Amino acid sequence: MSQPVTLRIESIAAGGAGVAREADGRVVFVHRTAPGETVSATLLEERGRWARAALLTVIEPAPSRREAPCRYYDVCGGCTLEHMEYNAQLAAKRRIVVDALARIGGVDVDVPEVVGSPAEFRYRNRVSFTLVRMRDGTVKAGFHELMRPDRIIDMDGSCLMPELPVAEAWTALREVWGDGAALLPAGPRLRLTLRATADGSTALLVQGGNGPGNPKALLAGVPGLRAIWHQRSGSREPVLLHGEEKLAETWQDEDLALGGAVFLQVNRGAAVLLEDHVTTTAGDVDGLTVIDAYCGIGLHARRLTRMGARVTGIELDAQAVREARRSTPGAHFIEARVEDALGDALPAALAILNPPRSGLAAEAIDILRAAPPDRLIYVSCDPATLARDIKRLAPVFAVQSIRCFDLFPQTAHVETVVELACCIT
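Given the sequence above, the corresponding structure tokens read:
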């Protein structure tokens, strides 16, 4: 172990670690630290321009430091900012976005304060756990360890992130799955995702492994569990093993029917704020042609169609497209990669883009630059790829407004909605 170093923490990095600078300018990342405090740390990994260190002691704590309420926080990698007061978390996330836009995107734009989540804890309606079957026949199931992501922290429903129905279902599932989790599909490593609906019903998706296990016994043993799905490695779609094919969900003013691995935002309270902002930013769309790219189950498409827009939704997930078509008969939905279908959907007055963390494919950027809509509304879950894409779009589109939303309290993740307008004639 290297000699301890004394560091002054300046900010929080996108991964949740505190950022310090040594006298020679090298950046050092230290988890479980807060801006404004002085700490002692030991170096774990050293590269030319950066290093990674582990916190030893806090010499001068920041005013924002607090005792983390979760019993697993000392070692768990599921959360990274729980040691900071919530307002300080929001300030750190705003700076992450500002720094990414300036450093990667070359954009100097006013970023308002981050819109906070209505709930700081117990906000996740969907949680994914990793289950590992050990050689001695025991099972570990939970989140990855902070400093050793190859290890799994075994945890029950006392984790503070899941909504109560998810937490209760997880605790019950652990109690009934049997020795070696024998009632689950076989395999050394599984990904278990529990989703809860507004009425407290839950569904389980098992990814990986083989064979069905005993889903009927699991369903009988977990109160509120309504469906068990299985997605084998390499398969695109999950298969219903037992229970209800669709779970009824109420999402703000929308009635949904969800099955399998269909995507929906994990924080229902904060998602309402973000979705309302997108609708407000879209404005009067009556009679306009609108593209909803990466549309999922088509929530934006549904609302804009009711507002009089002619909407084309594009989504690769087959289950999501089926639900979008069922619930929004007035819109047109294409099951395809966005970069494959976007060109045929243009021209349009407005395009809503909600890509995965990797951002827009280069082909999609080229299509938007060649046949630009009047406006774009870009919903991003990663400030770095957002900044990259804004820079790529910059010859044709200019930033008009930006707003950030905290859908993931206790982590460094932040959702950003950017409005861009075509600036060529």
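The chain has three domains: 1-65, 99-118+267-422, 126-245. Try to locate this feature in the token string yourself.
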